[in-house]
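In these records, each integer encodes one residue's backbone shape. Here is one protein:

___
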Amino acid sequence: MTQLPPNPASSMAHTPPTPPKTMRPWRLSTRLLRGVTAVVIGCLIIVSLLTVAFTKFEITERLDDSLQEVAERLQFAVLVLNQQGSGHDIAHLSNITPTSLAYQITDAQGQVLLRSPNAPELAFVLPHDAGFYMQPHFRVYVTPAAQKNRFIMVAEPRVHRSQATHHAILIAVLPILGAIPCIWLLVMWQVRRSLKPLVHLQHEIRERGSGNLNPVPDLALPHELATIQTAVNLLLERLHKALAAERAFAANAAHELRNPIAALLAQTQMLRSTLPAETPADTPGTTARHRVDTMISQIQRLSRITEKLLQLSRAVAGTGFQRQPFDMLEVLNTIADELDPPHGAAPQRLLVETEPYTRLVVLGDMDATGILLRNLLENALRHSPDGSCVRVAVTLDTLMKTDAGSEPSFSAQLTLENDAPPLPDATLSALTDPFVRGGSQAEGSGLGLAIARTISTQMHIPMQIYSPIPNQKTGFMVRLFFQIDRYESHEEAQPISGPGYKKHT
């Protein structure tokens, strides 16, 4: 059987897609600073190279001019030499150094008639053509003398020429290179100064969100940033109107839905009161009274679900974005009294321990906090076994150590515990999603923890969930951390412990 070649289209179809590349975060100030500094330094390097070439050219030209000038001044030596006669004379000069100029006076055959002490015995250049010559150790200038068959050669050591050129280049280039740190500092100062309005705009926008939807104030921004400020203010205004509309819809829906459900429940209860009582001959579950009881229970369940849906709508609409000081203990005690009256005939199931504190003022929204605590307490009471207690404790923890003389910063830790079987990790991680239940047979909608998580996120209240309770094998625990603005306590606080302590302290 002939094997067919693989189809490239099918192989490409099964190739996993390449994940998109993530852009690394970068700073505008850093990019501007690096870009401007690189451009300036590049320009300075080009200027330095041009300066080096120009300086080298000028130094060479000036030194060559000096060789020509010395050769012209040596014309008198040729006259003296003609009067004294030919010979291999050496001029006696003082202060001769390796970098001093050397000269020779030669005849047409290249014989040296007169030379300086640092000049070689043989002629610098042969034949004697006028001009400049570059020798291994000298740069030589040759010119015919005024006398016939006489030539003057002036030579400069190349070491001296190199030293002079290097010194001139350093003098010209070092100030340019030394200015680079100063230029970098000035560029950094100017970039930061120019970006200050952008930094102020960044801080203002960062503070927006949560409960602050106020427009960005006038920051005297440049034209390029003023358009951003205008767009942000328009967006904040639209967001504020949208949130206001959402809250108004939730409030109106709550009012419009509660009334018909309450009226339906009242009419059903009145209908039940008019029905005759059941007789022993009636079949269980078939009488009109039993059916009306079923209707009443379903209407009550509908009322609870509607209430939870409205609370979830209010939470999603941003009911926890407000930032106002209020007493958290007052809200907690009020809800605890509503859910478990302290003077009821049934055993108390809700035990609240607030230690010696009488007031704990926190920043947030009082209504949203009430919805948050009510959902957590109702959830704990509903899913606790009969006869068990739900324990609520409020303690204060120091957030950070401050300097001497300043007031410490505290966090109010609210811990809620109830008896319940432990939950699997997968169920516990998804328990704050809407309509997710933990497997309990108790009646519920699966929205309580979702509402609590939404409100705690909006109010920046960390919420931790544990199952089982740490260091125990069973139980369910929720822990909240409120930012304390101020607190008050009893002057003489008595320790609270044991099962018989007061319900509300």
Remarks:
- The radius of gyration is 49 Å.
- Residues 8-13, 400-405, 491-505 have pLDDT under 50 and may be disordered.
- The chain has three domains: 29-163, 208-272+285-318, 319-505.
- The longest strand covers residues 476-489.
